[in-house]
Amino acid sequence: MVERLMDFTKSILKGMRVKVHDEGLLIVFCGPSGVGKGTILQVAKEKNPSIRYSVSATTRNPRQGEVDGENYFFKSVPEFKEMIEKHELVEWVEYCGNYYGTPKKYIEDVLKEGYNVVLEIEVEGAVNIKNMYPDAVTIFVLPPTFEELEKRLQGRGTESNDAIDRRVERAKKELKLVHRFDYIIMNDDLEKAVCDFNSILSAEKLTYKRNKDILIQIGFVED
Fold first, then answer.
1. CATH no. for residue 41?
2. Who contacts 37 (Cβ-Cβ below 8 Å, separation ≥6)?
3. Contact by Cβ (8 Å): 95, 107
4. Which residues of 113-148 are buried (b: 16+ CB within 10 A; e: fewer)?
5. Among candidates 70, 188, 197, 193, which has minimal Cα distance to 139?
């Protein structure tokens, strides 16, 4: 072991730079509607330029300010069903009367470029992603209380009271799957939630499983 450490030290002195895991991570980011996922990601991205959003396809109507191809790929129901039939989606769900799905090619292309790709998707879709991509990092965002969640939904001013009630009831069902996630973030303080998110990304880059090949390469562990 001492000899290996000496060899490693010599390689550093010779200018060889050994990096920890620097490939892109697939981040699955979930939580009830209105919990603040979008705000957390927006601020986190400002602090961490390695983050890229995965652009989902959806059949819901665009909200004010949303741009096709940037916020979502807005599709008609027939167009979305054609994507399903052609196996062009990593996952898809029907949620509150609309379809949502993740285009396979988009996320794989961005990961190859070395960026951390964040999928902001529904809870059912997250479970499917984890089954397909075991190395994906799954994060669930929690509201402080259901009362606060309802207040945030009302503050958006985009839905009726009946629709808000349905989303709150849906949130209660989604929480039953929280044990299937790797991490949780409590969004009762935005700055802390953003810090927690970026800390998770940093920690995942340092896990043994993501760095085993590097450790073999420099002789710290056996193949």
1. 3.40.50.300
2. 29, 30, 31, 120, 141
3. no
4. eebbbbbbbbbbbbbbbbeebeebbbbbbbbeeeee
5. 197
How many other CB atoms are found less than 10 A from the CB of residue 86?
A: 8
pLDDT tens column, 53-94: 888 899 999 988 999 988 899 999 999 999 999 999 988 888
**pTM for the full predicted model:** 0.75
What's the structural domain count of the chain? Answer: 1
Whether residue 135 is contained in a domain is answered as: yes
Residues 172-186: tens digit of each pLDDT: 888 888 999 999 999
**In whole angstroms, how far apart are CA 82 and each of 55, 61, 107?**
18, 18, 19
82 touches 18 (CB < 8 A): no
Spans of the chain below 50 pLDDT: 2, 12-13
Residue type, 8: F
Structure tokens at 212: 């085993």
